[in-house]
Amino acid sequence: MNKIMRLKDCAFYVSQKINSEILDKNTYVSTENILQNRLGKTIASFTPKNNTKVTHFKPKDILIANIRPYLKKIWFANHEGGCSADVLVLRAKSHTDSSFLYYSLFRDDFFSYIMKGAKGTRMPRGDKEQILNFNIPNMNYQNQKKIGELLFLLDKKIELNNRINAELEAMAKTLYDYWFVQFDFPNEEGKPYKSSGGKMVYNSTLKREIPEGWENGKIEEVLDKVPNTIKILNKDILRVGKYPVVDQGQEYICGFTNTKESVLEVKDAHVIFGDHTTIVKLVNFDYSRGADGTQILISKEERVPNYLLYQMVNNLDLTNYGYARHFKFLKEAKIILPMANISNKYNQIVIPLYEKWRNNFFENINLSKLRDWLLPMLMNGQVTVK
Predict the structure, then answer these.
(1) How far, in Å, CA of 205 to CA of 165, rounded?
(2) 222 phi and psi, to 5 degrees?
(3) CATH class for domain 140-188+339-386?
(4) Which pLDDT tens digit goes with each residue over 325-363?
(5) Structural domain boundaries of the chain?
(6) Does the domain made of 215-337 have the CATH classification 3.90.220.20?
(7) How far apart are the first and last CA of the chain?
(8) At residue 332, what are phi and psi to the nearest 5 degrees?
(9) Whose CA is closest to 62, among 93, 88, 25, 96?
(10) Do domains 4-138 and 215-337 have the same CATH topology?
(11) Phi, psi dihedral angles at 102 (to 5 degrees)
(12) Residue 337 in contact with residue 215, Cβ under 8 Å?
C-alpha cells in the first residue's frame, strides 16, 4: 500500500449554497474572521447582503482562507453555516476521518505547499486544483481515528482554557462596570453605594455625577515610566515561548522577534496599548516587547492600580481619532479617580482571576507545543497511538 495519497483521494470541495439571510455573525465565515496562525475563528464583524448565495458548510468540514495562505487561516467547523467565496470548504470522503484530515492540513507543510502554487503577489491566492494534489498520509481508518481523536483532545483542552479565560475576563469587566460605571461598589454597610442612596456630586469636567470624594484626572497624569528591560542573550528562550512576545495583534505571539531581544519583568500587571490599532491587553507575566508603537502603560497612582487602569483604557472609545495618533489622544483622555480603598478592594478581587488566566495561558502554550511536536511524528508513523 502506498504510504501517501492525494488530498483529492480523501476529500472534496463543497459547492452547495445557502442563502445568507438566514446567517448571523456567528454562523457566517469569511477570510476576515478566520484567525491567523491556525487559531480557529471569531465572530464576524458583518454579514453579506440579503439574498446572497454563499457556500454551505457543516460540522466537521474544514474551512481554509484562500487569500494570503501564509497567514495559516484554517478552522475545523463545529457548527453549520455559510462562508464567502474566498474560503475553501473541504469535506472528508467516507473512508477518511475528518479530524485526521484536518490535522493533516494543519501542518506548516500544507501552507508552504499552497504558497508554491499561489497566484498573485500582493494578495496571493491558492490554486484550487494544485491544493488537491497535496500529499496526505495513507493510513487505515482506525489509525486515522486514533490520531485525530488524540490531537483533537489537546485542542479541546486549549479551547476550554480559552473559554474559561473569556469568563474570567468577563467577571473582571462586570465588576468594573458595577463599581466604577454604575457606582454600586459596596458602601460601609456592604450595600450598593449609589442604589442605596450614596451621595453623588456633579463634576463639571466629566459632565456627570460621581460619588462624593472621587475626582477627575487624565490618563497621562497617572502613568509611570516603563521599567528597565533585561537583555536576552539566548534567542532560543524566546523561540520556545518562555517569554511571549506581545504586539498589536489580536493574539499574543509566543516566539522570537528580530526587532527586540529584551524582556520586561512584570512584578505587577502591565497594560499594553496598540498605538496603530487601539487594541488593549493586560500582561501579568514576563514578556518581550513586540512591534514598534506598542505602548506599555504602568500606573503610579494609588487610586488607579494597573488592573483598574486596564479596564479604564479598555473602556475608552478612540475610534474617531486619526490613524497612528491614538496614544496622544489616549493620554489626554479624562478618567475618574476613585477613592483608594475602593480601588484596592477591586484589585484584591481581580488579581486571583488574572492569576488563573495566566496559568491557563501558559498551559495552552505548552499544549500547543506538545500538539505541534506530536503532529509530524504521528503523520509519518514514527509515533503510534495505542
Answers:
(1) 36
(2) -105, -5
(3) mainly alpha
(4) 678 888 889 999 999 999 999 999 999 999 999 999 999
(5) 4-138, 140-188+339-386, 215-337
(6) yes
(7) 22
(8) -85, -5
(9) 88
(10) yes
(11) -60, -45
(12) yes
Spatial CA neighbour of 95 closest among 192, 207, 9, 2: 9
Edge-first strand order for the sheet with 280-283 is 280-283, 270-274, 294-297
pTM of the model: 0.86
Condensed to tens digits (0 to 9), the pLDDT of residues 170-181 reads 999 999 999 999
C-alpha cell at 72: 495559516
Give one DSSP letter per residue of 256-279, joined into a string: --SS--EEE--SS-EEEEETTT--
User: How many Å separate Cα 112 from the centre of its chain?
Assistant: 23
Extract the C-alpha cell encoding 338: 476613585
In this structure, CATH architecture of domain 4-138: Alpha-Beta Complex (3.90)
The x, y and z cell numbers of residue 137, run together, are 498520509
Of 176, 161, 217, nearest to 307 by C-alpha is 176
Block means of pLDDT (10 residues each) for the chain, length 386 residues? 86 95 94 90 89 94 96 96 96 96 95 94 92 95 95 95 96 98 95 96 95 95 85 68 75 63 85 84 87 85 96 85 71 94 96 96 91 92 85
